[in-house]
Amino acid sequence: MKSFVVMGIILCMIGLMAFAMHREQRSAAGLTTPIVVKKDSIASVKAFTAVYKVLMSPRCMNCHPSGDIPLQGDDSHLHTMFPKRGKDGKGILAMKCANCHQPENSPGLHTPPGNPNWHLPPADMKMVFEGKTPRQLAKQLIDPEQNGHKDLKKLIAHADDGLVLAGWNMGEGRTLPPVSHAAFKKAWITWLTTGAYAPKK
Amino acid sequence: MINLNVNHKVYQVDADPNMPLLWVIRDLIGLTGTKYGCGVAQCGACVVHLNGEAVRSCVTKVSRAEGQQVTTIEGLSAQNNHPLQVAWNEENVPQCGYCHSGQIMSAAVLLREKADPTDQDIDDAMAGNLCRCGTYLRIRKAIHLAAELQKKEGGSV
Question: Of A19-28, A43-52, B67-76, which gets the smallest average pLDDT?
Fold first, then answer.
């Protein structure tokens, strides 16, 4: 009888732990379905190839420069006027990003694209894309010390960040990233949920 | 009607919300010190302060300024005696003068944030203000002088 009671208690505890873990996973995901990571290095690296092409396109890379001056144009030249990043990524002195970049795209060719939150990554988390190999970029993106302490849930959510989405709405005359946002998001989530493997090079 | 606070005075203007702030300031309110240069935020001739920041009024919709504090060159000081205006006069900075209200408005933000700016600070802050007469060296000299005047006055701008 005593062993039945002990067994019952153990089974209850296992059940509670499983329930708690499941809830935690759901909660961490913040989604209606839990994030399931199913490691698959081949699928992961393949997905990252598509992700890399987008991140290295001018619409994304121009605001992830290796220096403190943003880039401009399809040839990713240094931003005219040489505005600087500043501590918070929003510019310095009389050269704050929002002085020219409005909450929305300005109409016409060669006018500033806009977003209510226009900025570079801040000085303490530069998240450089320019010049990175696929391997370097993949490792940087998932390194909490370099990605602003983003966990899997936050990395997935970042695909729908306002400035990320703005890459596909940069105003007249600007080339779009090589694939749609939906295709990018699918590749991004696939990469992350198959283990976020970094390519060999 | 749109309510605007320009140089601490409230204006009610009948303008399309998408109208550039520059045209409201110049054509509807009649403050013509702020100049039109390029119309695409590339030259800085149209700089005014929006809540203290040096915005390009040619690309700033008037709707963005509604209910905010706008300061133009006319409102920078009561008697045209802001240290920058005094220094500009002292150093005879302008040549044609067209870009200089924008130059001064940008420099005012610089001096507010860096009371004793280096040449590099000046270059960083003023890089968005073009002067086709090429008065850059006099601008730099005047900003250093204004910083000294500001120090003597014992406060920031």
Answer: A19-28
- CB nearest to B55's CB, from A99, A110, A111: A99
Calculate the CA A160 to chain-centre distance. Answer: 9
Q: Which residues of B touch A83 (CB under 8 A)?
A: 127-128
Domains, chain B, ranges and CATH?
2-73 (3.10.20.30), 83-153 (1.10.150.120)
A167 pLDDT higher than 90:
yes
Mean pLDDT of B65-84: 97
Q: Is B82 helix (H, G, I), strand (E, B) or coil?
A: coil
Q: What is the pLDDT of residues A97-124, one digit of tens each?
A: 999 999 999 999 989 999 999 999 999 9
**Going by DSSP bridges, is the β-strand pair B69-71/B2-6 parallel, antiparallel, or unpaired?**
parallel
The ranges assigned to domains in chain A are: 1-34, 37-193
Question: How far, CA to CA in Å, does A17 sit from each of A8, A10, A30, A35?
Answer: 14, 11, 20, 18
Partner A contacted by B140 (CB < 8 A): no
Output the pTM of the full model.
0.88
Interface check for B144 against chain A (CB to CB < 8 A): the answer is no
Bridge pairing between strands B9-13 and A91-92: unpaired
Question: In this complex, do A98 and B53 lie within 8 Å of one another by their Cβ atoms?
Answer: yes
